[in-house]
């Protein structure tokens, strides 16, 4: 285990603008001290009540090291986003920011809902790497948050 807490930071952010639900977002952020923060905001358009969910949990160094391995093996450090579509103010957007050792990346593009969204793009290989890393991060973070807050250790 590396234990270099101050060298590692990762954030995943997804923002959607919906006619029916207003502005919504999902964000996971792992801070250098090992704190994982989760925020989910539902818009609540058309008379529905929106809401905000916030949860935090501290991760062990072993879990953080596993996340580092996922990011390193993804190939995201070799990706260039200069040809990706830049989301406008009212467009859905997806972002990944990561600081790991000497690497510091920050990518932003319109939301990718499926591989079909990637096929016709200028940079399908780079967007595919971004797409799969985004899926891995969401799955990993959701699993950690859900297992922590839904665990019933005493029955």
- The helix/strand series, from N terminus to C terminus, equals EEEEHEEHH
Categorize the overall geometry: globular
- N- to C-terminal distance: 33 Å
Query: Biggest sheet, open or closed, and with what strands and sense?
Result: 6 strands, antiparallel
Low-confidence stretches: 1-5
Helix content: 25-40%
Number of β-strand runs: 6
What's the mean pLDDT score? 85
Query: What Rg is obtained from the alpha carbons, in whole angstroms?
Result: 17 Å
Percent range for β-strand residues: 25-35%
Q: Numbering strands along the chain, what is their spatial order in the largest sheet?
A: 4-3-2-1-5-6
Structural class designation: alpha+beta
Overview of the structural elements:
The protein is α+β, with helices and mostly antiparallel strands and 155 residues long. The chain has three helices and six strands. It has helices at residues 61-74, 116-119, 124-150, and strands at 8-18, 22-30, 35-42, 51-58, 93-100, 103-110. The chain has a six-stranded antiparallel sheet, covered by helices on one side. β5 and β6 (103-110) form a beta hairpin. α1 (61-74) packs antiparallel against α3. The chain is globular, with a radius of gyration of 17 Å.
């Amino acid at each position: 285990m590396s234990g270099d807490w101050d060298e590692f930071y990762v954030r995943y952010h997804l923002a959607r603008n919906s006619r029916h639900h207003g502005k919504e977002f999902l964000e996971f952020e792992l801070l250098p001290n090992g704190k994982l923060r989760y925020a989910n905001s539902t818009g609540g358009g058309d008379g529905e009540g929106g809401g905000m969910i916030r949860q935090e949990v501290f991760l062990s160094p072993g879990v953080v090291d596993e996340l580092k391995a996922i990011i390193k093996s993804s190939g995201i450090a070799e990706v260039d986003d200069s040809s990706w579509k830049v989301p406008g103010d009212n467009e859905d957007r997806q972002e990944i920011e990561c600081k790991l050792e000497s690497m510091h990346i920050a990518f932003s593009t319109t939301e990718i809902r499926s591989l079909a969204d990637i096929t016709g793009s200028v940079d399908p290989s780079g967007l595919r790497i971004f797409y799969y890393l985004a899926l891995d991060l969401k799955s990993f973070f959701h699993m950690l948050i859900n297992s922590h807050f839904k665990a019933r250790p005493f029955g």
